[in-house]
Design brief:
Oligomer: single chain
CATH class of the largest domain: Alpha Beta
Radius of gyration: 20 Å
Distance between the termini: 32 Å
Number of strands: 10
Structural class: alpha/beta
Number of helices: 14
Order of helices and strands: HHEHHEEEHHEHHEHEEEEHHHHH
């Protein structure tokens, strides 16, 4: 990858500059958001308490407890550990404090919600919402986005933001998240109380999906719209799902298809992402076909599809994607002990064919 630079390079280039010298920006937000994918339970920073820990001390404690940790599951980039270790070499982040970690998994309502608060300096906070992790509960909740509004994690994100704003009344607030975390960031900024919303400086949705048509309150959205930054790679798929009602910033990625969802593939130049002129042809075709597929489903069909798929996932009694994909192939999935309705199996196969047709996924069947 000649001349391909990403956020790791940014940390090396700009890590010696304080926020006074070079203001907090979208790449900083993404870096801190990726750190929030680490499991900080039992590190005395649990939500909702005002117990703050310096970021370097927190990461030292984490790697002391988990010295050989190098995987976060099937879909979460392992480079996150490199980012976390690199922070110690960056004066830029040396004074950040961390607090209010929450990681909520509730299988009964298909909810996966996690957040972390970064105290950037004496005046500014960054609220970080974690995206979908490796749990099947999280994926079940993602499926529910087509049939339910708001989903439990969205409501919890709004409440978390309001509570944090109430705990630290004199601070300005940045918000951000990757993937579903971006969706939660936007939802929380729209539906938080007015006092909280007035203190928000910027909302960063990093390749986060939007919302089903006619669900978001337009008046509430317009109050925060100009402070929302929707950042999507030029071959983007996830960030183009549903409607965002916000013109995105299209950036360059040196991967293809669904792999562009990996933020370590996003090209960086100085303190910004390299912008692209337009989405790729395949990205546009995939969006058009997925939108068409969803639009043809009635409200009842969407709810039935989400319910059916969730019941199927629950029937497998598997906790994460690695266990889930250990089954031989798509056909073995749909012939499991819980039988999905044929029409819903067809929807899954149609999605698979859309992604395959436009070279967005590469599936290897293990024998």
């Amino acid at each position: 990858m000649e001349n391909k630079t990403n956020l790791i390079d940014y940390m090396r280039w700009r890590g010696d500059l304080s926020f006074n010298q070079s203001p907090f920006n979208k790449i900083d937000a993404l870096i801190l958001n990726l750190v929030s994918f680490l499991n900080f339970e039992n590190f005395q920073i649990d939500y909702p308490y005002n117990q703050k820990v310096n970021i370097n001390n927190l990461l030292d404690s984490f790697f002391s407890l988990y010295p050989n940790e190098n995987k976060l599951g099937l879909i979460i980039p392992s480079e996150i550990f490199m980012v976390a270790r690199s922070i110690k070499n960056c004066k830029r982040y040396a004074n950040i404090k961390v607090s209010n970690f929450i990681n909520k998994i509730d299988q009964s309502i298909s909810e996966q919600f996690s957040a972390l608060l970064f105290h950037l300096d004496k005046d500014n906070l960054f609220v970080s919402f974690r995206g979908t992790d490796d749990t099947l509960v999280g994926w079940a909740e993602d499926v529910n986005l087509i049939a339910e509004f708001p989903v439990p994690a969205q409501k919890d994100a709004r409440d978390y933001l309001d509570n944090i704003a109430n705990m630290y009344k004199d601070k300005s607030i940045y918000i951000g998240g990757h993937s579903k975390g971006g969706n939660l960031s936007v939802y929380a900024s729209i539906y938080c109380n007015e006092t909280t919303q007035n203190r928000i400086k910027a909302v960063y949705s990093f390749d986060g999906p939007g919302f089903m048509e006619n669900t978001v309150d337009e008046k509430s959205f317009n109050k925060i719209k100009d402070r929302i930054y929707h950042i999507i790679p030029n071959g983007g798929i996830i960030g183009r799902l549903f409607s965002s009602n916000k013109e995105p910033t299209i950036i360059k990625s040196f991967y293809k298809g669904l792999d562009q969802h990996n933020p370590f593939s996003w090209e960086v130049e100085r303190d910004n992402f390299k912008e692209a002129d337009a989405f790729s042809k395949n990205s546009n075709k995939i969006k058009k076909e997925i939108d068409s597929l969803i639009e043809k489903m009635s409200d009842e069909e969407r709810k039935d599809f989400a319910k059916d798929l969730n019941q199927y996932l629950d029937s497998l009694k598997q906790n994460n994607l690695i266990e889930f994909l250990n089954l031989r192939n798509v056909l073995s999935l749909v012939s499991n002990k819980y039988k999905m309705k044929h029409k819903n199996i067809r929807y899954i196969l149609k999605l698979y064919l859309i992604f395959s047709k436009y070279d967005a996924i590469h599936v290897k069947i293990s024998k």
